[in-house]
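Q: Okay, next protein. This is ABC transporter related protein from Thermovirga lienii. I've checked the sequence twice, so it should be correct. Can you predict the 3D structure?
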Amino acid sequence: MKDIFRLENVIHQYSGRTVLDIQNFEVKEGEALALLGPNGSGKSTLLRILAFLEKPTKGRVYYDGKMVNEPSFAHRREVTLLLQNSPLLKRSVEENLCYGLKVRGKTSNMQEKVRTALEMVGLNPQKFAKRKWFELSGGEAQRVALASRLILKPRVLLLDEPTSSVDSESAKVMKEAILKAKNQWGSTLVIVSHDLAWIYQVTERALSLFNGKLINHVPENVLSGNWEPRNGSLFALKLSDGQIIMGAGNPMESSTALLDPKDVIICAEKPEEDSALNALEGTIVSMNLVRDTGQVLVKTLVGDKTISSLVTEKSMKNLHLHPGLKVFLHFKASALKWLQ
C-alpha cells in the first residue's frame, strides 16, 4: 500500500511551546491506524494537521505522494474530521447532510444519499430528515455529525474520541458505520479513542504519543467471550479447541480482558499444573521486530484466539522460534485486566 500521509521533521508550537515533535510518520492508504496516549500528548493537534486545519510550525507534510505547502480545498474535500462533540449547523438534519455535498458540487441524488447515510448511523430517514438541530439528543446529534461525513464517502476519515460522549447504543451503531466506511469504500481511518477494546479489534496498527513524540505501540491482547465462574475468584474462557483461559478477578460474563504481551512467556514445554497459571498450546503464525525496543513480537494461534507475546532476540534464537512451531504460552490468571 502507498502512503496517503507522510510527515517529515514536523514541529508544531503554540506560543513558543512545542506540542508536536515528529521525525517520521506514515499512514498507508486504506489502513486503520490508532493513536494512543494520555490527554495533552498531541493527538488532537496531529489530527488537525492531517485534516489540513493547521499548518505545522516546521517540517514537511505529504499527501498522496505530494508535498503540501498550502492546503487547498482539493485536499480538504477528501479528508474529513469528526470531533468528540462536532457542532451541527443550525438547520435541519437533511440540510446538515446536504451542506458538504453542495459545497463539493455533488448535488445529484441527494435525497437518496441522505437516506443511505442516516440508515448507516441507525436513524430512520422519515423521522429524522426534517428535524431541527435542537430537537436531537446528544447521541442523535453525534450520529448526524458522523452521517454528514459518511455521506461524502471520504478518502480519509479522522476520528477524535467520536463515541466518548454518547450513549452505548449510539456508540455501537457509530462504530459499525465507521467500519462499513472502511470495508465498503476503502476509507483510511485514523482513530483517537480511549475505548481500547474497540481500538484493538478495529485497527491494524497503533502508535502512542507522549509529550508530542511518537513511539511504536504494541497492542494488548483482547480476550472477549463468555467468562464462566470457577473455583474461588477465577473465571474461565473456553476456546474453540477446548483449551481454557483462566482469569482472576470479578468480571461480568460478557466482559473483555486485556493481556499485556510482556506478561506472556513462550516455552517449549508445558509447566506443572497450577490453577493460577495458564499454559496454552498453540502454533506461531508470525514474528516481527519491534524497532523501538529491539524485541520480537510473536503471534501464536491458540484455538480461535491469536495471542501476542514479546521476546528478546536472544530468547528467540535460544528457543529456535519460527512460524509453524508449536509452543506453550504461560501467563498468570492475575495478569488479565478487565474492561467492563
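A: Here is a summary of the prediction. The CA atoms of residues 270 and 278 lie 10 Å apart. The longest helix spans residues 168-185.
Q: Noted. On to the next one.
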